[in-house]
Every structure is written in structure tokens, then in C-alpha cells.
């Protein structure tokens, strides 16, 4: 992909300006064009993968998601081609929008693109085409959505149809129904769970915030914008910390093949004026993510986004991932709606949070603890509250980072017997430098866990209860990867191989861990000391003199308190 040369006088960190984003969008749009059908209604990308929705739906996905990119780019030449495809698609080529069907998802992208480019595309269509398109989209208003972020797709379609005066009553009902539904999943402090349960991942940004805020902004509804924009602004306080110093997003959750769609909420905050981030930090974070993927093989030799993370990688895919699925990365180009003279484009880049002094950040809603170190730009997420067993291991591991991916060998896990599962997670709190939870393993086994962090160092403690005496337990740490160093060593109850056995009562296992990209880090023994007293409490002392006492209980949870020299 050819981009303009970096201009480090303007952007000292990535060198990416608006011209780089435009060039990236143009290259992606040019690359997909040869894969359009003759009538331009479908885009079939090469490869033998097919989603569970089938080839026809996958072709519609290719049209809808690349149309969204053309809409953000406001490329009139490209939009003319998509107008031809729209006319053919709604004349019998596209599958109908039915209950819980993939076309409902793609209808939202099409409706949003039409709404954003109305004078350039919709208003230039023949009346007959407009009528057929409105009728095709109209099925989205009554189609049953899966009980998750899908509830927002009828909202997005309804917003466009309401604007053009088609089915105002049905559109209004669909909007109200979807917005009311997501209230059930708002848990506070800017965070949603994606449906019932505790499903926390990037869908917060590229779906749960994106669609309501864009709808409110486009409808010029200040009441809704204050509500959803306020939530977005609060979310961005935490969200900005989910990117490494090299621009990498955290490797956690599902649909990771959408890659730099992770930047959408950053741009959305700037676009709507609902962000706590300085303009230069917004561009640093967004440009960092784009550059991270472009430099690591996300684009193949045909100029197409691959199904994967860096290059092709089936481990990050789901059954719904079709050849065109990665093009939800188009959402990352939302920033092109900002005019060239907007301060996000004209301000010098400012350091991202991971480039600033070391930080440990408690995120209460998902019960997460973030740990970042400026020496290597790594961000680590200690997960003590997010769970979706359908997509294990990207939800249920104890920790994730911007430099590692979950491994088949069960990294960051407590394996009781031969069972690495982690279900029924119960958050037990998060505070200054610590986070805790309880989970189930198999039938009747409970593990109460706490992690304490300082710098890049972690103290991980696990109390295993309900297992038969003599049951083997193994504790694992970070997965290995080139360029980073993963360490784990026993501190209590574990052998050198990080294994132990349960006793007659609840049994405590403690380990020290570290993930770092420093070439010569100080030995762990110089940075922390750990002991267990006669009462079973864990005594931790960091190299700066701070001390903490931790007590785990199978029935009462976790007690963490700072201690002094006499304690």
C-alpha cells in the first residue's frame, strides 16, 4: 500500500497526517473494485472461506462494508459505482432481511452510508430505485435481532428511513425499541456488556457507542447526544489506555479481524465533541493503530485486508467471519468526516497513555486492571470480570496484552486436574494496584484469584477450594512471543514447574509473573518479595518500600490492605 512520506515535523510519533488516511482509504477502495460482480451488487473476495451465512450473504457483506469506506471518504466516483450496485441489489440480487440474519447487519452499514452521503448518492437515484431500496431496508425495522449489539442495526436503518420520510411510525418504533434495549446492558462508567452476562470487548466502541451516538448526532437530537455522548466521553477515558505504545490494540475479545475499527470511538468523540482526549492524542492513538496493522501484513499482495490480525490468522475468526468481514475496519476511517482544518488533523500528536509514565488503572465496570509501562509501551489487561464461554479463549483467560495472543497451551490460566476452564466468573473488586475474582472449574471446584501489580511485575495468588485432596494444580503465565520476555516463577505452594496439589482444605498457590520487552530487566527478586504468614495471609513488599497484605477466603472473597513496617 503506497502512502505519502511521513512528515515528522507535523507528527512526531507516527508521522501520519490526513493525507495518509486518505491514501489508505483510496488504496483499499481501488483494491476491492476488481472483485465486484458485473452489476456491482456483490463483492466476492478470493479464497475458499465461506461464513455460515453463505456466499450470497458474504457478497452483500463485501458491498456494504466497502460502501461504508467510500461514504467516509466521500469519494464521488466510487459512490457512483455503489449506486449502480444498490440499484441491482434491491432489484432482486440481495437476500431479504429476515429474523436474526446477516443481511440485517449489512443493512445498517448501507443505511448509515446513505445517510452520510445523501446529496451524493441517495438524492441522485431514480425514484423507483429509492422506493425499492427503502422497501428492502424496511424489513430491518421488524426483523428480530440477536439480543446483543444487533439491536442497534434497526436503530441505524430507522434513522435513515425516518430522515427520508419512509415509514416514519415504524422507524420511530424501531429506534425507540433498540435504544431502550441497550439500557438493559449499560453497566455504568461508559461501559456496556454486549447482551446479557458479562461480555466486555471492543464491541463497546465499534457498536454499542458508535450507532447511538452517530444516530443522535445525525438527527441533531441534543438530548440523545448528551446522554450517549456523555457515556462515550466517559468510556474514552478508559479506552485510550487499551492501546500499546506501538499502536497495537489489546488482543482480547472476538472479531479481532476488524483491526483498526478499534479507532472508531476515538474519531467519534472528536466528531461529536464528546471526548476527554486532546486532539493530538486522538490522532496519535488512531494513527498508531492504522500504522501498526499496515506495517505488519494486514494487507495482502492484492491490496486486500486478510482474515486475521497481522496477516492471515484463523485463530481470531468466528463462524460468521466471511471473506469481506475484515472490511468493518472501514469504521476506522470515520475520522475522514472531520474537515481538513479540524484540530485533530492540525495539532501535533501527543503521547498516548502507554507512552507516558507507568500506570495501573482500575476499570470498575468490567472489573479489569490495566497495567502499562512506558519503557516498552506494553499494556496488560488483567481480566477478572469478562466472560463469554462461546468465544474462549479470547474472553476467559486471566490476562491479555498488546504484545501477546492467547495460546492453545492455556496461557494465563489455573488448571485444576486437567481442566483449564474458567466459568461463572464473579468479580470481587478492583482497587489501587489489585483486582480479584472467583470462578468455577468443572463441577464444584472454585478458584478465588487476586493479582497485584507494580511496574511490569505481577503477584498472582489463587485459592483452590472444592477439589479432591491431592488434585494436581498448574499455574501458567504469559504466552511467549518474539520481542517480549515472559516470566513466571513459584512463590508459595508451587514447584519450579509451577505445579502443586490440593490439600484437605482450600489450598493457596502464589506465583510471580512478568511480561516485558525491556532487553535487560532487573531480576524479579530485586523488585518484589512475597511471603505467606501463619494465618495464610500473603505479604507483598515492592522495591519502593510499599507493602500490602492480602487474604483470600473461599467464602468471603478477598481483603487487600496497605501495611506499614510494624505490620
Mind explaining what this structure looks like?
The model is unreliable at 7-12 (pLDDT under 50). The chain is of the alpha+beta class and 567 residues long. The protein has helices at residues 18-32, 55-73, 76-93, 102-116, 127-138, 152-163, 168-183, 203-218, 222-239, 264-272, 279-294, 343-346, 524-527, and strands at 186-188, 191-192, 359-363, 368-373, 378-383, 399-401, 414-416, 423-431, 434-441, 445-454, 457-465, 472-475, 485-492, 499-501, 507-516, 528-532, 538-542, 547-553, 557-563. The protein has a six-stranded antiparallel beta sheet with strand order 8-9-10-11-15-13, with no helix packed on it. The N and C termini lie far apart (61 Å). It contains 13 helices and 19 strands.
Order of strands across the biggest sheet? 8-9-10-11-15-13
The coarse silhouette is elongated
Radius of gyration: 25 Å
- The helicity comes to 25-40%
By CATH, the architecture of the largest domain is named Alpha/alpha barrel
The assigned structural class equals: alpha+beta
Quantity of strands, as a count: 19
Structural descriptors:
single chain; 2 domains; alpha+beta; 6-stranded antiparallel β-sheet; 4-stranded antiparallel β-sheet; 567 residues; 20% strand; Glycosyltransferase
